[in-house]
Amino acid sequence: MFDPRRRSSFSSHQDLTSLGSQALLRQGRDPIRVIALLILFLALRISSLVTLSPDAGAATLHCGSHGHPHDGEMYNPGGTDMRGSRADVQVLSTALCTDYPDAVSSAWAMVDKGENPNGGWAQIGYWHTEASGYTEHFHQSLRCPSCQIWTIAWGAPTAGNTYTYQVWRDWHDGLIHFLLDGSDMGNTSWDPLDNWSVIEGRWMGEAGYYGDDVPGTKSNPADFSSVQRRYSGSWSSVSYTGNEVDACYYHLTYPVDSTSSFNIYTDPLTHVC
Questions:
Q1: In the prediction, which pLDDT does 150 show?
Q2: What domains, with CATH codes, occur in the chain?
Q3: What is the pLDDT of residues 53-84, one digit of tens each?
Q4: DSSP 44-96
Q5: This prediction's pTM
C-alpha cells in the first residue's frame, strides 16, 4: 500500500528537533515534480542523514513492474475491534533497482481498511530510497481511495538497530497515532471508525518494484519481534490470519514462534528462483 511517489512540495509539519531533524509533509501525484522535489529534498537534508551501505550484489539493475510486493504477516479479525499494531523492527540497509528514483524498500507496522487494504491505511516504519540513498523513519496515512496520502519522514535510523514502531487509535481523541520508541510522532486528522468498516493489522517488508529487495538477506534476515495487536483496549500477541509473500525470492521464517516474531529476507539476490 505504501506509496513514496505521491508527495507534495515539502513544508514543515511538526517540531521534531529533539530527534535531530524536522519532519516534512508531502503530497501530490506528478512524477516529474516528484523527481525535482526529491533533488531539492536531498540538498536540504544531506547534511543531517547517514548513508547506509546496501548488501553487495542485492537487487537487480532493472526495476520491472511497479507492484508494491510485500513480505510479512497480517491479522484480520473482522469488524473494527482491532485498534492497533506494533512491533520491534530491525533496520537493515537494502539494495534497490536503479531504473527509477522512486525505487524503495521499507519495513513497518500498519492498521488498514481490511475490506479494501489499498483503500485506506496508517503505518509507521523505516524506508530506504534509491533517490536519496538514505534510510529514514516515516509514517504515512490514507483515509479513503480518493483521499490524499500524507507522509512524514525524519531522522537517520542506525543500521542493525531495532526500533519499536506503533500505530493505534487513541480512544481519547479517536485519531490514529504514530509512535517511535514510545514517543508520539503525529496523528491523523480522522477517526478510522468513521471511515472503515473493517480494521486489520499488518507487519511487513515492502518494495516499490519487483526489482527491489525487501530488507534482509539469508545470512542476515530482518527481524520483526514483540509483534502485538491492540484489541479490545489492550495489547496482546497475534495469531496471524494470513501472510503475504509476493515473490519467490522473498522469504518469511519463524525463528522463535509464530505469535511474537518472524524474519524476512531476499534470496537469491539475483531474483532468479
A1: 97
A2: 11-266 (2.60.120)
A3: 444 345 667 898 888 999 999 999 999 999 99
A4: HHGGG--B-PPPTT-S-SS-------EEEEEE--STT-EEEEEEEEE------
A5: 0.80
